[in-house]
Amino acid sequence: MGDGLRAYLHGSARLVRAPVDYAEMRRYDGLMPHRDANGKETLWSAVLYKPGEQEDLFGRLVEAYQLLVGGGKHIDHLRVAGVDLCPYGNSQPFRVRIINRLNDNHDYFYIKRTDASRVYGLELEHLLSPNRLNYQVDGDTLLEEHIIGVPGDAFIHDPKRYGGEVNAVRLCKEFVKFNERCFVRLLGDMRAYNFVVDVIHDLDQVQYRLRAIDLDQQNYEGRLRIYLPQFYKENLGYVQLAQSVIGPEPAKQYREEERALMGRRMGLALDQIERLTEAMHQDEVAPQDHAAQLAEELAEHHGLAPFLKCTTMGQVLRMQLRACLGI
Q1: Three-state SS string across 166-213, please?
Q2: pLDDT (tens digit, 9 = 90+) per residue, 112-123?
Q3: What is the torsion angle, in degrees rounded to the nearest 10, for the CA atoms of residue 195, residue 198, residue 199 and residue 200?
Q4: pTM of the entire predicted model
Q5: Less Cβ crowding at N or C end of the chain, within 10 Å?
Q6: How far, rounded to the nearest angstrom, does the alpha carbon of residue 172 sit from its chain's CA centroid?
Q7: Inter-axis angle of helices 116-128 and 248-268, to 10 degrees?
C-alpha cells in the first residue's frame, strides 16, 4: 500500500490504531472443522486459542468491534462468542462472532490481511455501488463489517428456501445490474460464492440485491471477461434463468439504468474518485503486462484508442469510468 493510498485513507478517516492485528490472530493453538446445520463441513474452521491468552485477545476483539461499528464507544455487555478462520484463498479471513449478553443478539466482523487491491475494491464499492461499506485499516490489518445476505451459490441452488416464492424477473434484473456494476468499475472474480443475495420483502413481492463480499480482485487481471460475472461457470444458474425470463431489450434497459445511477454516484464523489485513481496510478496493484492487456481489450471493446496510452491500472480504471459513465 503506497503513500498515496495511505493519504487517501487518512483523509477519509479509514486509518485507525486497531486493538488487535492480523498477525496476533494467527497465533492460535488449533483448528476444528466448522459444520453447518446439516452436519456438513464448511470452508470455515473454529479457531482455538490457549486459555491464558484467549481472555486478553477476546477483550481486544470486542474493542476492535466497538471501534468499527460504534466509533470506539465502550459497551459492557458485548463478548466474543467464537472465532472462525477460512484457510483457503489469499485473504484467509478471521470471522469474529460478537454476542450481546442482554438479548443474545449476535453480529460478525472480519479481520483480514491488508492489501492494496482489496482496499481499492472496498472503497470503489463504497463510492459507486448502492451499498455503503464500513471498514478500517491499521498497517497490515483490515477490519471489515459483515455484509448480510445468502451466499450466491447456495441461493441459486434453492432460492425458495431463502425467500419464499421467487420473482425470477426481479432476481435476473438485479443480476444484470450487478454484472454491469462489476464491469464498469472493473471488479473481478465475482463467482457465486464471492457475492451474496440480500432478499428484501416489499409488500406482496420480493426485491433482491447482489452484493460483492470478496473485493480483492479489483482491476488486477488482464482479461476483460474476468470483470463480467456472466462468464463464470459458477454463475451459470443465474445466466440461464436470465436468458429464460429477460430478453435483450429489457437487459439493455437495466444496464443503461445502472450506468445512469453509477454516473450520479460518481458525480457526487468525483473528487474522491480522482484522488483514489491517482493513488492507484502510483501503486503497483497489478503486473504491467496485465494493465497493457486490459487496456488493449478495452480499447477494442469501446472503440477508443486512448486506452492504449494507459500504462497502469489506475489509468485504465480512470479511462474505463469515463468511457462508461461519461464523466
Answers
A1: CCHHHHHHHHHHHHHHHHHCCECCCCHHHEEEEEEEECCEEEEEEEEC
A2: 999 899 999 999
A3: -150
A4: 0.92
A5: C
A6: 20
A7: 100
